[in-house]
Amino acid sequence: MKTFFFVLSFCLLSSGLVAQDKNELVKILTYNIYHGENPFNPGQSNLDEIAALIKELNPDMVAMQEVDSMTTRTAKVYGTKVDLVQQLAELTGYHGYFAKAMDFAEGGYGEGLLIKNPATFETQNLSIPEGGEPRAAAWATITLDSGTKIAFAGTHLCHQFEKNRIAQVSEVSKKAKKESLPTIWAGDLNFTPTSEEYRSIKGNWKDAGALPTPYSPTYGSMEDGARIDYVWYDSSKFSLLSYEVLNVPHSDHYPVLVTLQLK
């Protein structure tokens, strides 16, 4: 039995698209996992529920934010220090990668990726011109079943300063251009669609959640929360097939699930 329901869903599939090679479809999940702890029941792990959700949704790639690795904070929840990405990789059977943004609580704090197909990984450190917490992007170069290579990045932008977020968006975009592969990037970006940061994203980048109505928050209340979690894709290389925000109670954010097709 499914343990979630879709609060927003639209589908742009046509009979012609369905007939194409399914290996060309790419399913992306982005989720702020609240450092492996259920925010509504402090001290309780949320990893089993998140792993079950990932296995049921079966995305090709997952970007995770607020990820701890071997911190004393995880020890309070799990009884011992835990690498959350490694745990989720073992539970789901995906390839896992942790990109440390900063030292925290005797361990690390940053971004996590789970990738179904073979991939190579690297960490991009992002600038903080106004100061504040260090930030990073986790990058994967992924070989799809068809043999096509694509780039995927997951990040969690500064929660304090607009200037930092604008700089960080620019740096992710520049790296994507340098990679010269079909690129998708996703994460908790800590800005809304009416912000200057959002307007600073130019060129072929498209927000997968821009078209659906009514407005669907990804953080806070489903009635009056904020949309701050995104999947961005290069519209010259991908077409958008579906976008869904999932109402599940494992974090203070809602996971976003997007399906794209290579052009």
From the N-terminal CA to the C-terminal CA, the straight-line distance is 34 Å
Strand order of the largest sheet: 1-12-13-2-3-5-4
Task: Give the DSSP E fraction (strand runs of 2 or more residues).
Answer: 35-45%
What CATH first level would be assigned?
Alpha Beta
Globular, elongated, flat, extended or rod-shaped: what is the shape? Answer: globular
The string of secondary-structure elements, in order, is EHEHEHHEEEEEHEHEEEE
Q: How many helix segments?
A: 6
Summing up helix and strand content along with how strands pair, one would put the structural category as: alpha+beta
Poorly predicted residue ranges: 1-20
Radius of gyration: 17 Å
Give the overall pLDDT as a whole number: 92
Largest sheet: 7 strands, mixed
**Any idea how many domains?**
1
> What level of helicity do the residues show?
10-25%
What is the CATH superfamily?
A: Endonuclease/exonuclease/phosphatase
CATH-defined topology: Deoxyribonuclease I, Chain A
By CATH, the architecture is named 4-Layer Sandwich
